[in-house]
Structure prediction request, 745 residues.
Amino acid sequence: MTVKLMFYIDLKEWHGFLELFYFYFELIGKWNICVLLSKSCLKKSFHLKAIEEEFMKNRLPIIKPLVFACSVALAACSSGGDSVVPATTITGTAEAPQGVIAQLEYNKSFLVAVVEYTFSAAIAGITGLEPVTGATVELIRIDDDGNQVGEVLATTSTSITGDYSLALPTGVSLAGNLIVRITGNSGASMSAMVVEEAVDINPISQFVLDKFVDDENLVLADLAVNEVVSLQGKVEEFDLTATADLTTMLAQLEAEVGQFVDNEIAIIEAVADDGTAAAAAAGDWNIVEFSVGMHDSDPNTSGILYGTFAMDIISEGINIADAGNGGLTLTIGSSLIDTFTNYSVDDQGNTNIYHEISLGESGDSFPAMIDADSNVTLSFPFEEELQTVDVGGANDPEGDGPDYGWRYPPATYFMYPAANGTAYVSMLGDNSVRYETTDTNGDGINDAVDPNARSGDEVSLSQLMLLRQGSGMTTADISGNYGMVAFNINLDTAPVAVYDSTVGVVSFNPATDEATIATGAFDKEELTRSPATLPAVTLNLVASTEPLTDDVIPYTVSATGLVTIDPGVNALEGFASADGSIMAFVDDESTGAPTVTNVNDEMLVMVELGTNMAASLNGATYKLIPLILAMGESGYSEIVTLGNGAVTFNADSSTATLDGSGRGIYRGNDVAEVEAITATSVTDVLTVDSVAANGAVTMSATDGNFSQTLEGYVSADGNMLILRNVGSDSVAGEYDMGMVIGIKQ
Prediction:
């Protein structure tokens, strides 16, 4: 017959405590502990003394052992007969930010509150999350818009530790459109996709689900469950902290991992390459990369805070090899330029410039994937590395090994094909958390990061171009008029920073091997930043035309496309694409020895111009890859880009609609903490002021006192846009400046 499982346990001081659990079970009926058993069966199933010892040893709740014991007893009492195929059981833990708990939980009785007080909440993977107890868990199906389809398939509730267990009904399998949802008595809910048997419900699971639902091209039921599992696991490797409410937590996730998840979903959507794209991409290329970043420091023992503005410029060779099955192998070759600049300031007003040059041939290789549309994907797993030191050497006078280590979250980037396969353009990011180190084996040498000694953040964004190397090229391959956009940053320990961007036309004449810049052909916008006080700064934006007279400069082109423009002092070197239609340069100049006092870094892109381009943008759409610096006289700084950005021109190119998601990093002043910018949806309508016959383009927009201007050129074949961005609000003291590269879709 069916009997209620009663516990009589003479455990002295623990007797009353276990009795409390029994009444807790009785009160909420959470596990419905009703089984078919005999006294002898019970004795065979579990030993109460073992439970007592485990409980006293770990000071942990015994709910799970008791429930497990009941299930064992039931199995042990089976009388034989037909075998039963066990159903798939979904288990997991529900966790939420503290401010959401009350919305998701049922009202607690006094006894439940006593139990939870006695057994404190577990620390969740995301700092600040706590278990959601007593919440209804429902298993449902949803459509591609996230709406429930049909009736609830199964239901259960979460325990006092936030755990739940739910058996899939017969005929129901793991799938992207199958979700578990917790709902509280207030109507608040949080969900997770049921793509494996271990399914935790938390802000990350909700965020990933929302991302899939928001993608118009995905059919949830068709998703490969392993791809969803992999994606969610990668997001969980980021260093995140919960905020007071779920809405804010989801916004934080969007800011910090939104683009990463978008890129991962794009990979899931992509059509696999049949070998054609990989074969076409194989060969020798050149890289041109300009990176800007910000670092911060957690308070150190001296109490001094530091902040850093960093720059990297890279120009080097790279080989792309077909690895089969849609895979590529990328191998770095010799460097033309590879420099790193670290401009630091502390809260006492002291400034310092560290400038490093690294040249040579690295030979480093890493894998990539290519899809049928020739998009190349670079994916990097969670990584950890230590500072490289010579123990006891010049960079380790204490002789105790590295002082710092870094943890890098997973990263996924796309390189997009441009200019009929002769170029790739990408926006990369380098995000890491810096830690102090510790000695784990007692030998006196630090050999691992100390996860409890976080030292700061290091974050950067990079605008990158790959240009296919040519063969047998000469100055004849660089001929005629080229539109140019340049972005330049000059840092000085004075301390003064100057940011400028220039647009203009350069004419190349292979008959004389000379490049000519006509009088006033360059339009220059210059922004000066003087951090005279902390945190406030002085900003000044001025415009000018250059040069004052015609400038004629010799140029050379190597067989593989190395272009040198040499005025006799500080020659500019870069690369041309194999067909000569695009050129890209980066340049680095420093002053002061042995202590560097000034660094000037620049990226410059040129496209071949046409002669009848007035209607070339009509109805066209371009994917945008911007790199923008923004700052205010209040002292804040931003480095921003446009995630999933695009600009679409109307039928007669009188207007253009800018779409995307503003992403990047923010710092309130030079020594403040670096933060991810809350991603904001951007939909702006620009006025197209002009499209000239040679492809010169000017667009503008005004929002209150803030005016934005985009100026540059469309290439002769219409496949690329290069633009300068300048924005200003002199009333609020806010300015931005940078470079935008567009790829025709």
Notes: Residues 223 and 403 are 45 Å apart (CA to CA).
